[in-house]
Write a structure and sequence with these properties.
26% of the residues lie in helices and 26% in strands. The chain is an alpha/beta fold. Among the domains are: 10-16 and 31-168, Rossmann fold; 424-528, GMP Synthetase, Chain A, domain 3, CATH 3.30.300.30. The strands form 6 sheets. Strands 15, 16, 17, 18, 19, 20, 21 and 22 form an 8-stranded antiparallel β-sheet that branches. A 7-stranded mixed β-sheet has the order 2-1-11-10-12-13-14, sandwiched between helices. Strands 4-3-5-6-7 form a 5-stranded parallel β-sheet. Strand 21 and strand 22 form a beta hairpin.
């Protein structure tokens, strides 16, 4: 494969190029906003960039975005880039110390906030922060204390001045996006233009995306899946997109059908939540040809394709290391199969997580990645040099994920290393155990962790379960598991909980469950006398 040129791999070049090519063709439609054409995207971001220039926003300044998916969100991102500043979208579910942490890391000059979300900042200690301006979208909410207030609509009406638009290079940092913080404090990932572009380029190439497709976007724009993988792939390929504020399992199919989407994405529990909606004879009445879904469960993957009349495609990646692997539609759906390495851009190895020594075919170890092209990878963690050095050991970026390669060179994602339970010499994927549990009708959802037994140092499997109604008999759960998983993977401990903590993108947060360990409400099959038969 010839080496792909990175010339023009900036958001500024991309928006301008597509405006010239597609002009007044509608690019994005929204749940609550007016449509946006390719030409309007260029013109309106020029005007907004001049508005930001008037606020003093310049090279290297951070502009924090705390808003739902919207027209204003996309305009702000490109306008910030056109000023040479750094766009920083953050999770709209944050509050209190969680929000304070990310604001403290970013040190923003300007905060752009939906009026409906403004009150969240009332619980945040802003002492010591040098925020100058609060830009409020769609309402009369007050500014943050000690800042000037300006309405987004007023800022967007600024007369564009060509001198306010900077030039950009593929290696320039344009965005900081935060990790989910599932294994520690969230970290701000420094993302060059080319890194953001490659997310969309690789995804579009893997899906053969064209300007005749139509994308449905329900993933949040503060996450790489929604903003760089979905939206940027649409911009690169001239693909119209319909954008909603948030995912809803009950309206997903109606939304897909109404906008005539041919492609969509789902992350975390989203595809499974869709599949667990009641089936209807109209499920195949849609235009979808493809859905990128990560991860896919063995119990429902093929059935999902048959039910909705589409193909599922998997991939592997992180905000830090882009998407180095994509599935191939020539292969059948295989749980955990992220597919083949995009080897014109990346090297990937499976190594022993303690020694970093490479492992062989089908051996499970840590997935490590490094780029072949400059600027197509994160540039580090913002204001966290020690975490950057920790992640880049022995000249490889360490993902913290467990995986393996099969004999055909396909990468399989097993689980987060902390979610890969080691019991009696066997590696157990918490995800695979959760999939079996979630297929038991009395269970709404589950989270599986490894815990230390009261005697002995080995890990045991604990299942934290949200019942779909009355809590089922733990024995019935074990009977279900015994028929459907290896005996070493059958949970020893069961605990019923009211809900499970998740990130807004559907990933389970497990640290509190691990910290709790075995509690006085944990049911123990060994104490009960239940024996897992061979």
């Amino acid at each position: 494969m010839s080496k792909q040129s990175l010339e023009g791999w900036t958001s500024l070049d991309l928006v301008k190029r597509q405006a010239e090519r597609y002009g007044d063709r509608v690019f994005c439609t929204f749940e609550n906003d007016p449509p946006l054409t390719f030409a309007e995207f260029e013109r309106e971001t020029d005007a907004l960039a001049s508005g930001l220039a008037g606020l003093g926003v310049g090279e290297g300044d951070r502009v924090l975005m705390f808003a739902y998916n919207s027209r204003s969100f996309l305009l702000t991102m490109i306008a910030v880039h056109k000023r040479g500043a750094i766009f920083t979208p953050i999770n709209t579910e944050l509050k209190g110390d969680f929000l304070r942490h990310q604001m403290g890391v970013i040190e923003p000059r300007v905060v752009v906030v939906d009026a409906a979300l403004r009150s969240v900042f009332d619980s945040v200690d802003l002492a010591g922060m040098a925020i100058e301006t609060t830009v409020v979208i769609g309402g009369d909410a007050p500014p943050l204390p000690g800042t000037e207030r300006i309405a987004f609509e007023s800022l967007a009406a600024t007369v564009a001045r060509p001198a306010d638009i900077v030039t950009a290079r593929p290696q320039d940092i344009c965005t900081i996006m935060f990790t989910s913080g599932t294994t520690g404090p969230s970290k701000g990932v420094l993302m060059p233009h080319a890194h953001c572009y490659l997310f969309g380029y690789g995804a579009g190439r893997a899906k053969s995306l064209t300007d005749q497709d139509r994308m449905f976007i329900c993933m949040p724009f503060f996450h790489a899946m929604g903003l760089t993988i979905q939206f940027t792939s649409c911009l690169i390929n001239g693909t119209p997109a319909h954008i909603v504020r948030r995912f809803s399992a009950t309206t997903w199919l109606d939304d897909v059908r109404a906008c005539k989407a041919t492609v969509t994405y789902g992350l975390g529990v989203i595809p499974e939540f869709i599949f667990r909606q009641p089936a209807t004879p109209q499920d195949r009445d849609n235009d979808l040809r493809l859905m990128l879904a990560v991860p896919i469960g063995e119990e429902w993957g093929t059935a999902f394709e048959e039910r909705f009349g589409l193909r599922l495609l998997q991939a592997y990646g992180m905000t830090e290391c882009n998407l180095p692997a994509f599935g191939d539609l020539k292969d059948p759906v295989m749980a955990g199969c992220a597919g083949y390495i995009m080897d014109d851009f990346f090297e990937v190895q499976i190594v022993d997580s303690e020694t970093d020594e490479p492992l062989g075919t089908d051996e499970i170890g840590e997935i490590v990645v490094r780029p072949k092209r400059a600027s197509c990878f994160m540039a580090g963690y913002f204001n966290m040099p020690e975490r950057t050095v920790e992640a880049w050991r022995n000249l490889w970026f360490h993902t913290g994920d467990a995986g393996r390669f099969d004999a055909e060179g396909r990468l399989f994602f097993i689980d987060r290393i902390k979610d890969c339970i080691r019991r009696r010499g066997e590696n157990i994927s918490a995800f695979e155990v959760e999939q079996v549990l979630n297929n038991f009708p009395p269970i709404a959802e589950s989270s599986v962790i490894g815990v230390r037994a009261e005697t002995g140092g080995e890990e045991e499997v604990k299942a934290c379960i949200v019942p779909s109604g009355d809590a089922p008999d733990p024995v019935s759960i074990l009977d279900w598991c015994v028929e459907r998983m290896p005996r070493y993977a059958v949970p020893r401990y069961i605990e019923f909980v009211d809900e499970l903590d998740k990130t807004p993108t559907g990933k389970l947060r497990k640290q509190d469950l691990r910290d709790a360990g075995i509690t006085n409400t944990t049911w123990d099959r060994e104490a009960f006398g239940y024996e897992v038969r061979r």
